[in-house]
Amino acid sequence: MEGDPTLRLRIFDLNCWAIRYLSKRRQERVQLIGDTLHREGFDLVLLQEVWSEQDYSDLKARLGSCYPFSHYFRSGVIGSGLCVFSRFPILDTLLYQYSLNGYPYMLQHGDWFCGKSVGLPLIGTGAGMGSQMLCPPCQLHAEYSREKDAYLPHRLVQAWELAQFIRHTSKAADVVLLGGDLNMHPEDVGIRLLRGWTGLRDAFAEATRFEGCEDGCTLIPNNCFTVKSELLPFPLGIRIDYILYKAVSRFTVKCEELKTTTGTAPGMDFPFSDHEAVMATLRIQRQDKAAGANLGTTEPALVDVVTEARAEVAVGLRAAQRQRYSSGRMAVLALLLLLLQAAAALGTLAGLAAGQPFPKLSFSLLAFLAIGVLLLATGLHLFHSIEVKMLQGTEEQLRMALRALQERP
Amino acid sequence: MEGDPTLRLRIFDLNCWAIRYLSKRRQERVQLIGDTLHREGFDLVLLQEVWSEQDYSDLKARLGSCYPFSHYFRSGVIGSGLCVFSRFPILDTLLYQYSLNGYPYMLQHGDWFCGKSVGLPLIGTGAGMGSQMLCPPCQLHAEYSREKDAYLPHRLVQAWELAQFIRHTSKAADVVLLGGDLNMHPEDVGIRLLRGWTGLRDAFAEATRFEGCEDGCTLIPNNCFTVKSELLPFPLGIRIDYILYKAVSRFTVKCEELKTTTGTAPGMDFPFSDHEAVMATLRIQRQDKAAGANLGTTEPALVDVVTEARAEVAVGLRAAQRQRYSSGRMAVLALLLLLLQAAAALGTLAGLAAGQPFPKLSFSLLAFLAIGVLLLATGLHLFHSIEVKMLQGTEEQLRMALRALQERP
């Protein structure tokens, strides 16, 4: 951006839903994504749920000529699923893993195994690399039930950590672009917290021109891969994939155009993914005087948002404390049973009891059961102890934020 | 610092070794630490290994009048052990947990349970909060054997993540102060990497005046709580606790004085901890022209350091891959055994085998054993898969850093 004061930046964001052996028509779709990206020549591509490194390598091989720079963020058992392709050099990267991410025993949801994170590529743009952009792709914990959302406190902790991470790292850049599947509706407390606390602006709300699904929805009943029953309460679909942005200093950012796909990939009869792709054209312009850092929401409104988030985290904290208590009690009971059995066995050995009081088989089965329960309950107790610690930590940080907001003149 | 261009800052750093039920004379020592801090009136106190929140609360109650601002960083099962007391307001905090931190099954070392992290308090100093300081207290994975240091790759990953974290967040501040037990000798590759990549300077090397243990050692045979046998190869002791600093912009920092305790607390016959306390007096001065960001080591030397670190991480990666493979093989074998037993049991039920081929007791014991091994080996396999992912990620980041260094004009 040195020299030329304006940069028009075209961004592509997609949750690719590329789970090996599980996602339908995965290979075909990944190839289609690669072809489209190659043809369209975006400046920056932020992808989520590319769970297999092989898919990333295939995309990289296909896109090497038009996106010379790329990065895959590794984390968790399976990976973070996040990757970025860029026409501009990636100067540096950093990965921040959220401290809470669901429960390891909820195998059917699987979020815990993914190591959900926010990746932080620092990208240099334009001649002489006059400006630097932070372009984190990110994904938050999925919402499996809107009515009884057991993961809301975890998602709020993630939204808060994401907001804090962006606040603390964004000074290293001139422009921050956040793209990803946030798994939150636009009016949810998590997204209001993230936007309010960081000052990030929503490309959909700010776009001069919009083309795509009604209300900007990115999970729609029209898409052949979505689960229709989950979308029953939302006949138009829901908007959970976002492109958010802000200028940090000396620059202004404006969203000229925002587009989404509408249930099929352009010119095809099937979609890229179960999510719609979001494509934005941003105009980044240098200005002479530095813009002051500001929050995204007026302060009284932000106080309300932080208070609401804190109340939700407190609800999660109480649930985690209950689970920690009951797993601890279970472990103690299993230990007592084991001790009792040991005492009975010793008694028999010492000849205190007449004859053989228990059949050997059920006696050992019971002992093994007790050991199993002890191990499992101890593991759960440790896990919920961590959960309690992290929820307490977040609650305290939110309290600090609230105090800082209220003390501001 | 608005108005007055110079700030003299007195910092106290200590690894408190305050483990409930395990550390000797803990309560007495915590009280002594509180009394000393109260009497001496430092500006900033960075403590590690305050494992019990009760100890933190006691310190907070004792120190509230002279250090009105404090924060305890929560993470892991037990906690991060990190806390900070400050005469200046703590404006914001962020916690970064290292992605690797030892092994959960190494119970005797226990690092895994601590959730080792770097805390990030942003502190505003002086009238009108003219400047902001990042003052992370931190602790890296312990070294249990210098000859056969199995944790070196983990500690290197942590040192790299710490360096990256500081690089990415330090632009939000004018001065960065890092205090803590880094568990590395001054010439170790991890500390050279951290200092080289961030530009942090070592208060011991830079101090105009020094007073304390020879060579600035902080783990010395003279201290009645240290394990003498571990220090046999180092008759003077070792230096593993540091205060590092740098000015980010518009400021200069100079270390006027550095002190360590020398085996006993001042005026007492026993020490604060098994580590010596490190106390620095820094002079922070505003200057008119902004200082450019620079690396701490000349670039050719830094290339060597990054190359060396990358080689060590690669060694760790191969070891982790071997462990992932052998735990996976063990899980498969246990599964095969279970399947075999199931087939045999079904065969017996179907009357294929004549009579009872196995005694019931040993048959079920074997089945339970196989289930136990299967669960354990699967858990290990998952754990080592994460380890492999994170080591690969760090290796790739180091490769990127190397390329960036080599491409620089």
UniProtKB/TrEMBL annotation, chains A, B:
It comes from the Eukaryota. GO terms for molecular function: metal ion binding; sphingomyelin phosphodiesterase activity. Its EC number is 3.1.4.12. It is found in: Membrane. Pathway: Lipid metabolism; sphingolipid metabolism; Sphingolipid metabolism. One of its GO terms (biological process) is sphingolipid metabolic process. Belongs to the neutral sphingomyelinase family. Residues 15-275 form the Endonuclease/exonuclease/phosphatase domain. Pfam families: Exo_endo_phos. Keywords: Hydrolase, Lipid metabolism, Magnesium, Membrane, Metal-binding, Sphingolipid metabolism, Transmembrane, Transmembrane helix. InterPro entries: Endo/exonu/phosph_ase_sf (IPR036691), Endo/exonuclease/phosphatase (IPR005135), Sph/SMPD2-like (IPR038772). One of its GO terms (cellular component) is membrane. The chain crosses the membrane at residues 331-355, 361-383. It is a multi-pass membrane protein. This is sphingomyelin phosphodiesterase.
